[in-house]
Amino acid sequence: MSDMKETVLRLEKLDRFYGELKVLEGVDFSIGRGEVVALLGPSGSGKSSLLHVAGLLEEPTSGEVYINGRATSMLNDAERTRLRRDTLGFVYQFHHLQPEFTALGNVSLPQLIAGHSQKQADIRSTSILTNLGLGERLQHQPAQLSGGEKQRVAVARALANEPSLLLADEPTGNLDVETSGRVFDALLAIVQERGLAALIATHDRALAARMDRVVAIKDRRLVPVEIDESTVTILGE
C-alpha cells in the first residue's frame, strides 16, 4: 500500500547495535501518507529502538532514515530538532504530561515552542481536544483526569504541530481493555481524518488487526504479518 501513496518514512538497510548487542539489522521499511501500520514484537525485540531511530531520537549504527524524502544522516542537531518538532509526533505508553499545566496548556506548549502565538495555540488545542472528546476537560490538570483522558491529551499534544508522521509506542498499553479501545478509536479517527502516516507499536492483536497492515520484528528484521485476533502468521515462514 505504501508504494501507492506519498512516502513519509523510509528506512533503508538500517542497523542498530548497542555495543555487541545487535537489535536491528538490515531493516528496509516504508510507510505512506494516510497509512496506519502496526508494529508487533515481544518485549525486548527492538520495537522501541526502531521507533527511536525512525523518530530521530537515536542515530542508526548504519543505514539511512528518510523523512518526506529527505535523508537525515547528515543533519546537524538543530536541523534534527526542527524536523522532529515540525514533522513528527510521538505518543508513549505513559502520558508524560506536565502536571502543572491544564489539558489545554499541555497541548498548546509544543506550539508555543514552535513559535505560534498563545491565541493560535489555544484555538488549535481546543479544536483537537474537542475532536478527541475532551471539550469539557480543557481546564483540568492531569491529576483531575482519568487514565484514558490523560492519554487522549497526550495524543492531542502529539498532533499539535500538525505532523506528517505519528510514532506511537504502546499508546494504550497502560490502560484497561475498554479504555484502551476508546483511546485507540479516537487516535485512529483523527489520524485517518488528517491523512497522517502512523507507525504504532502494540502487543494488542485486536488493535493491530484494525490497522492497514502489520509488521513484526523477527530475528532483528521487519517482516510482514497476516493477523486476526487469535492468530499471527509471519509471512515467508
TrEMBL record:
GO terms for biological process: lipoprotein localization to outer membrane; protein localization to outer membrane. This is Lipoprotein-releasing system ATP-binding protein LolD 2. GO terms for cellular component: membrane protein complex; plasma membrane. SUPFAM superfamilies: P-loop containing nucleoside triphosphate hydrolases (SSF52540). Pfam families: ABC_tran. Residues 9-235 form the ABC transporter domain. Keywords: ATP-binding, Cell inner membrane, Cell membrane, Lipoprotein, Membrane, Nucleotide-binding, Transport. GO terms for molecular function: ATP binding; ATP hydrolysis activity; transmembrane transporter activity. InterPro entries: AAA+_ATPase (IPR003593), ABC_transporter-like_ATP-bd (IPR003439), ABC_transporter-like_CS (IPR017871), ABC_transpr_LolD-like (IPR015854), MacB-like_ATP-bd (IPR017911), P-loop_NTPase (IPR027417). Belongs to the ABC transporter superfamily. Macrolide exporter (TC 3.A.1.122) family. It comes from Aquisalinus flavus.
